[in-house]
């Protein structure tokens, strides 16, 4: 049974059906031609038909041939015709299948107007029911063709697809022209990747590149229509660019690169699409930089180094010029000059080192210009591309070239040393005599080369100091100073910061317990927020009335904790307590001192003594305004947005603090620093109240 099934499956294959169709049709045609020829050879026109008209004879022949065909071999022909019919039914009745592409996920596939995408079916397909889509969409035309035994679907794009994109083709309603059953087919293909740079020659950092060097850029994939490359070079040079094979670029400077010049090359890529109809290229986005590098052209004859230079050259100094290449000594010496002219002798220490020694000392405080003209020649007979010149100034008047700390410096350490650097060697005692500092500070001097170092006995916090060097500092080689020099700096502010741990408050309205917990932890005592609240006690008078109505009734925060720690009970807000209940709780563990109508100087003094301070103020997040309600007939004052924090440090001095740092368990966790003005504004809502934990 299985052998029969396999035989039937083999017969149903399209190639087998085609073979059978052509074999049977050949047999049918050949067999009947033979029959007809044989039949007519053995038949003559009867005498009774002789002499009749020609068309009557033709009719007779046709009648005779048909009768002979039917009479002799009709059964075999019927079998042949029936077999051909079965073969044709094998083409048209089974469900068509896609035979190409056979893989539902194709790799890199390039399609174009010359290389369209073709889908092949093994049998004829009902065109009217076939639906096909391409996603993402590409402009193009679908063409459907059907033969006797198969069908093709072809897509011809109007422009190149985007690079490095996977496209999906969906075929729906694949069925034969007679049947009702259909199937779908889905496959995809990947367009070639966007080209990338594989190599650049010369590479980044190359030195000694020839002026006529060709630059070669190699990419990894052909990209005639999918991308274009741009080449930007600095300093700008006009380039001849050639794309050799769609992958490699070759370009060079039209007038050669300039010797001794470093060039920066940037290569960018723009993805493109090409229209096969308009023959135009369209950019798909902005240029993307793929490579950047530098290379340097071989040096032309020129100067490598020279001395003296700048300011402060000694009057007995020789002029020394080192060239980049071996030089033609006679011609190069003739190209050497100075302005003003100096009488002296030229010699060569080596093939690259020219030395000019003046016959008499140079003038002090004078600018000299040294030049080498384009007539200078290298040993290989190549000239300078450009004339060269530089200037130096001989030693002049004593001057201060630098102060440390620098002028206007702030936050200078109290033990910083003052450095005064002179532009030349000076007489030490003379310089020390001309030094002064205001306010006066005692100290000692030392020297490091031309730098005078003053080590003070100690500066004060947050003070401004002025340094002065009077005129008349004596020189060793040059001219005495003719003017004074000054600088100024400010020392750092005093800073005190207690190591108070910080935790977020456990509940929404337990900031006063959280602050107490942190202050006690600094003193080595560990307690929980809820335990502190229990020690504070509660006033459980329930809320009654309307918020911001002075006749409403609620608890007294000066007696105990009021409201819910999470703010869940009426009026929908928690509150907490003021300072008296907190003093009661903290007194169980440490000595405390309550301060009312206090000052920022007082807080600074306590912090400087190592004592944390708990303060009441507004949080700056919720609106701040006064509230009033009743408790046992007494009017209670409170503040919306009340918050309690631990002050842990300050900057400035005790007498003049400039900022305070607080541990914030809620809105500025873990700590925040406020300038003294902001601190006082927030603190003033509660009459500058604080608790010192000793």
Written overview of the protein:
A hairpin with a 2-residue loop joins strand 30 (443-448) and strand 31. The chain is 19% helix and 36% strand. The longest helix has 39 residues, at 54-92. Mean pLDDT is 86; it is low at 1-12. Helix 2 packs antiparallel against helix 3, helix 6 (511-522) packs across helix 7 and helix 7 (529-536) packs across helix 8. The chain contains ten helices and 42 strands. Strands 34, 35, 36, 39, 40, 41 and 42 form a seven-stranded antiparallel sheet that branches. It is flat and about 150 Å long. The chain has six domains: 2-92, no CATH class; 98-190, Sandwich (Immunoglobulin-like), CATH 2.60.40.1220; 197-297, Sandwich (Immunoglobulin-like), CATH 2.60.40; 303-394, Immunoglobulin-like, CATH 2.60.40; 400-492, Sandwich (Immunoglobulin-like), CATH 2.60.40; 496-693, Alpha-Beta Complex (Cathepsin B, Chain A), CATH 3.90.70. By secondary structure, it is an alpha+beta fold.
Note the main attributes of this structure:
Immunoglobulin-like; 6 domains; alpha+beta; SbsA_Ig; 10 helices; 36% strand; 694 residues; signal; five-stranded mixed beta sheet; disordered N terminus; seven-stranded antiparallel beta sheet
């Amino acid at each position: 049974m299985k052998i029969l099934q396999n035989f039937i499956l083999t017969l149903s294959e399209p190639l087998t059906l085609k073979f059978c169709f052509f074999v049977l049709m050949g047999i049918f045609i050949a067999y009947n031609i033979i029959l007809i020829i044989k039949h007519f050879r053995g038949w003559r026109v009867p005498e009774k038909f002789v002499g009749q008209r020609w068309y009557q004879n033709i009719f007779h022949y046709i009648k005779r041939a048909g009768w002979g065909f039917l009479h002799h071999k009709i059964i075999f022909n019927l079998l042949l015709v029936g077999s051909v019919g079965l073969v044709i039914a094998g083409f048209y009745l089974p469900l068509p299948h896609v035979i190409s592409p056979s893989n539902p996920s194709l790799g890199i596939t390039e399609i174009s107007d010359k290389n369209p995408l073709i889908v092949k079916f093994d049998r004829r397909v009902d065109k009217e029911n076939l639906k096909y889509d391409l996603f993402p969409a590409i402009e193009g035309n679908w063409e459907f063709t059907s033969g006797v035994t198969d069908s093709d679907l072809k897509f011809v794009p109007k422009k190149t697809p985007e690079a490095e994109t996977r496209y999906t083709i969906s075929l729906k309603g694949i069925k034969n022209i007679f049947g009702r059953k259909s199937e779908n087919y889905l496959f995809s293909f990947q367009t070639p990747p966007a080209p990338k740079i594989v190599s650049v020659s010369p590479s980044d950092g190359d030195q000694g590149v020839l002026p006529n060097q060709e630059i070669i850029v190699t990419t990894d994939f052909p990209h005639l229509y999918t991308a274009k490359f741009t080449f930007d070079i600095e300093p700008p040079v006009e380039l001849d660019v050639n794309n050799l094979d769609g992958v490699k670029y070759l370009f060079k400077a039209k007038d050669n690169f300039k010797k001794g010049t470093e060039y920066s090359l940037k290569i960018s890529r723009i993805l493109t699409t090409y229209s096969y109809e308009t023959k135009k290229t369209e950019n798909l986005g902005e240029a993307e930089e793929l490579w950047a590098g530098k290379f340097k052209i071989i040096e032309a004859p020129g100067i490598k180094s020279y001395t003296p230079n700048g300011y402060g050259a000694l009057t007995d100094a020789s002029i020394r010029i080192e060239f980049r290449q071996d030089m033609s000594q006679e011609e190069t010496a003739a190209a050497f000059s100075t302005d003003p002219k100096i009488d002296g002798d030229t010699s060569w220490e080596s093939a690259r080192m020219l030395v000019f020694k003046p016959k008499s000392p140079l003038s002090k405080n004078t600018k000299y210009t040294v030049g080498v003209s384009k007539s200078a020649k290298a040993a290989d007979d190549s000239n300078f591309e450009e004339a060269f010149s530089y200037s130096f100034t001989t030693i002049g008047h004593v001057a201060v070239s630098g102060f440390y700390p620098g002028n206007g410096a702030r936050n200078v350490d109290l033990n910083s040393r003052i450095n005064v650097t002179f532009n030349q060697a000076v007489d030490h005692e003379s310089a020390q005599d001309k030094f002064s500092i205001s306010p006066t500070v005692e100290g000692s001097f030392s020297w490091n080369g031309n730098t005078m170092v003053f080590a003070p006995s100690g500066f004060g916090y947050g003070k401004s100091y002025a340094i002065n060097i009077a005129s008349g500092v004596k020189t060793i080689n040059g001219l005495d100073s003719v003017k004074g020099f000054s600088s100024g700096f400010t020392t750092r502010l005093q800073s005190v910061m207690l190591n108070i741990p910080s935790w977020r408050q456990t509940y929404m309205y337990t900031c006063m317990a959280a602050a107490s917990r942190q202050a006690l932890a600094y003193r080595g005592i560990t307690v929980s927020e809820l335990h502190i609240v229990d020690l504070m006690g509660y006033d459980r008078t329930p809320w009654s009335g309307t918020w911001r109505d002075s006749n409403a009734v609620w608890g007294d925060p000066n007696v105990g904790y009021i409201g819910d720690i999470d703010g869940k009970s009426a009026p929908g807000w928690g509150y907490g307590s003021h300072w008296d209940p907190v003093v009661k709780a903290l007194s169980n563990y440490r000595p405390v001192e309550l301060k009312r109508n206090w000052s920022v100087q007082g807080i600074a003094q306590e912090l400087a003594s190592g004592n944390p301070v708990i303060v009441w103020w507004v949080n700056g997040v919720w609106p701040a305004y006064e509230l009033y309600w009743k408790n046992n007939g007494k009017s209670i004052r409170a503040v919306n947005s009340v918050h309690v924090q631990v002050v842990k440090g300050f900057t400035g001095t005790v007498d003049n603090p400039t900022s305070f740092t607080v541990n914030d368990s809620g809105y500025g966790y873990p700590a925040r620093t406020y300038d003294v003005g902001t601190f006082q504004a927030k603190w003033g809502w509660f009459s500058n109240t604080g608790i010192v934990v000793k």
